[in-house]
Recover the amino acids of this structure.
């Protein structure tokens, strides 16, 4: 007996097989990059942070769209991501590896023209040793800490390296970089403090490297004003439609649209409980829709009893806990024509933004986007 599936016939489109559909509007993403570029001061290179698989939306389509639009500088977290990006964008654009070079990876950085961000004396020493051994002048980026206490040379470490005649020998730093801790809060005192510290460090750095550029602004830093722009800006969340600030109107266009497929509609005929742990109670006559999506797809468990979707223009709340592959919504007030298996509940879109969903989950839009799973059918609207 031949039990093999009939692969040569009756194949169903992946969109029809999927439990949810993620649509990425590349035209909106490119327009967000152009909006930020217009806000930058003259001469400031506005690049793109595409780490974490372009914030969960797909490194290859995002990087190709931005490259075609004119973006020439990209920032990723890890070397593997940088190498993958080099294959996508070709030899032209600059690529910076933000997390720095692991020991022994110098040759790969050189081979693929990846600029490492040197954040520790150990990074600098390893890069210097390789440069002297191979007798090459290596392009790199030096990061200084200006108050965030995360990555970057401390003030003491920076002063020691600058005071050492051999501290940066063999290196060809393209820029000095630092990162804003509170850029998403425009009125925070730390923004000016970090800017002033960075200006001082950059001035000292240029006594040794006169052509070195400065980079401080992330998405929010670009919108703080030209005093924070310097020579290279590194927008991330704003490109993908997230609000760069913790409050106020969002100047960016939505990029991600997510719809989850209804697989069952139930009219409750006896009052009872919903989902694991009997976390929610429903009364007689309630109408429930269960969709084919869960925390394995990035719909966080913290959205249980808090999250909201949209169906037929109406907000429908999550009922009970979020399961690995299923979410239940209360659709009691939705029309019968819309409340049918096979229809979709909107999770993300122009009406329900990534910032609104993240607020419901008690987290940041970054986590919502980078948690998006790989089981969705993904559609990319061309740039």
């Amino acid at each position: 007996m031949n039990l093999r599936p009939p692969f040569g016939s009756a194949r169903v489109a992946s969109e029809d097989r999927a439990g949810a559909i993620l649509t990425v509007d590349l035209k909106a993403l490119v327009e967000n990059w152009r909006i930020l570029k217009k806000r930058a001061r003259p001469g400031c290179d506005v690049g793109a942070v595409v780490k974490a698989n372009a914030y969960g939306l797909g490194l290859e389509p995002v990087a190709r769209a931005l490259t075609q639009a004119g973006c020439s500088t990209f920032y990723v977290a890890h070397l593997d991501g940088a190498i993958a990006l080099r294959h996508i964008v070709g030899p032209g654009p600059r690529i910076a590896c933000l997390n720095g070079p692991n020991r022994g990876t110098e040759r790969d950085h050189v081979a693929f023209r990846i600029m490492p961000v040197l954040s520790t004396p150990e990074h600098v020493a390893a890069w210097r040793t390789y440069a002297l051994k191979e007798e090459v002048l290596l392009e790199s980026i030096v990061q200084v800490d200006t108050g965030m206490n995360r990555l970057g040379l401390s003030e003491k470490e920076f002063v020691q390296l600058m005071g050492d005649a051999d501290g940066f020998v063999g290196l060809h730093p393209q820029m000095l970089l630092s990162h804003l801790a509170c850029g998403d809060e425009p009125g925070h005192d730390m923004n000016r403090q970090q800017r002033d510290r960075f200006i001082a460090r950059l001035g000292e750095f240029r006594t040794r490297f006169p052509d070195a550029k400065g980079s401080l602004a992330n998405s929010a830093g670009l919108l703080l004003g030209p005093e924070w722009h310097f020579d290279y800006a590194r927008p991330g969340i704003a490109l993908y439609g997230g609000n760069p600030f913790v409050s106020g109107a969002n100047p960016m266009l939505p990029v991600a649209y997510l719809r989850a497929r209804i697989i069952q509609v139930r009219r409750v005929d006896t009052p009872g409980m919903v989902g694991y742990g009997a976390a929610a109670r429903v009364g007689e006559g309630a109408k429930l829709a269960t969709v084919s999506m869960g925390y394995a797809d990035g719909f966080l468990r913290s959205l249980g009893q808090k999250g909201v979707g949209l169906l037929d223009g109406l907000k429908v709340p999550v009922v009970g806990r979020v399961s690995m592959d299923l979410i239940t919504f209360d659709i009691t007030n939705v029309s019968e024509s819309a409340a049918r298996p096979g229809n979709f509940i909107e999770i993300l879109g122009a009406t329900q933004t990534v910032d609104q969903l993240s607020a419901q989950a008690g987290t940041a839009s970054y986590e919502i986007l980078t948690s998006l799973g790989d089981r969705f059918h993904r559609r990319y609207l061309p740039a």
